Amino acid sequence: VQLQASGGGLVQPGGYLRLSCAASGIIFSSNAMGWYRQAPGKRRELVAGIASGGSTHYADSVKGRFTISRDNAKSTMYLQMNSVKPEDTAVYFCNYLRAAYVDNDYWGRGTEVTVSS
C-alpha cells in the first residue's frame, strides 16, 4: 500500500492550494479516504473525509473553505484549499478514513503546507 500526498508549498493568507493523493496497492474505489494534518507541536487531526460513494464531511475549522474529492479511475484523491489561513499551516497526509480510529503504517511523509505572507 502506498498513499503519496503532494502539492504542498508556501501560500499567502487568503490564497489557494490543491493537494493530491495518489494511491496504489489498494482497491481505491472501495475505500473511504481522508485528509489529515499535523501542525507543529500538535496532534494529527482529520481534516476531511470522503466515502466510497462520494459523501463528504469536514472538520469545523475548514468547512466552507476546503473541498475533498476523488477520481476513482485515477485512484487519486484531492483537497482543494481555498481562503487559507496561517492556522492551516501543517504537514498534510492522506490515509484511509478508518485511520482516524485505528492507526496504520501508511502515513508516508505527507506534504507540507505553509501559509504565510
What does this protein look like?
The model has no long low-confidence stretch (mean pLDDT 96). The chain contains no helices and 10 strands. A hairpin with a 4-residue loop joins strand 7 and strand 8. By secondary structure, it is mostly beta strands. It is 0% helix and 47% strand.
Total DSSP helices:
0
Spatial gap, N to C terminus: 37 Å
Largest sheet: 6 strands, mixed
| Strand count | 10
Would you tell me the structural class of the helices and strands?
mainly beta
What's this entry about, in short?
The protein has 117 residues and is mainly β. The protein contains no helices and 10 strands. A hairpin with a 6-residue loop joins β4 (33-38) and β5 (45-50).
Strands, helices and their partners?
Blueprint: E1 2-6, E2 9-11, E3 17-24, E4 33-38, E5 45-50, E6 56-58, E7 66-71, E8 76-81, E9 90-96, E10 111-115
Parallel strand pairs: 2-10
Antiparallel strand pairs: 1-3, 3-8, 4-5, 4-9, 5-6, 7-8, 9-10
